């Protein structure tokens, strides 16, 4: 006689399928017996408290704060608004006249700022003390209106 074609793993898989089918039938009967649809709106409502957390209780009207709509700012302030208006002072740390650009070391912040010969008002040379303003460019800050100080 031949061996049975049913192996242990086949039996286990069939048991798992039967159990899954039974569970599915049980869930179907539970849904029919206890319908979750038709619940009232109050049980489904969620509120936000003063800290921004979701809660099931409505907010207390006595804790309500009045907010002026003009005080609400949406977006980020423009780059021109954030730029410094006062001229800065610095020393020309490097300048290549043939290429037409150089760098200024700011005296206050010790920051190195790029400048181009188109931003010069007075001709400058290495180690000159200058005053300048900073302009935001796509490649970073750049010095403009560079004037040689006496």
TrEMBL record:
Domain called CSD: residue spans: 87-148
Cross-referenced Pfam families: CSD
GO terms for cellular component: cytosol
InterPro entries with a match to the protein in the record: CSD, CSP_DNA-bd, NA-bd_OB-fold
Location of region: Disordered: 1-65
Recorded GO MF terms: nucleic acid binding
SMART domains given in the database record: CSP (SM00357)
Segments of skewed composition (Basic and acidic residues): 23-33
Stored SUPFAM superfamilies: Nucleic acid-binding proteins (SSF50249)
Annotated PROSITE patterns: CSD_2
Protein name per the record: Cold shock domain-containing protein
Species annotation: Spirosoma terrae
Organism ancestry: Bacteria, Pseudomonadati, Bacteroidota, Cytophagia, Cytophagales
């Amino acid at each position: 006689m031949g061996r049975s074609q049913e192996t242990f793993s086949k039996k286990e898989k069939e048991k798992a399928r039967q159990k899954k089918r039974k569970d599915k039938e049980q869930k179907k009967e539970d849904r029919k017996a206890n319908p979750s649809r038709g619940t009232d709106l109050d049980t489904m409502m969620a509120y936000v408290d003063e800290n921004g957390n979701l809660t099931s209780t409505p907010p207390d009207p006595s804790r309500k704060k009045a907010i002026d709509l003009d005080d609400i700012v949406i977006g980020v302030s423009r780059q021109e608004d954030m730029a410094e208006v006062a001229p800065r002072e610095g020393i020309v740390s490097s300048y290549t006249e043939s290429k037409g650009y150089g760098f200024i070391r700011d005296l206050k912040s010790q920051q190195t700022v790029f400048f181009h010969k188109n931003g010069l008002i007075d001709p400058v040379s290495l180690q000159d003390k200058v005053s300048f303003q900073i302009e935001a460019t796509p490649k970073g800050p750049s010095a403009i209106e560079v004037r040689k100080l006496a």
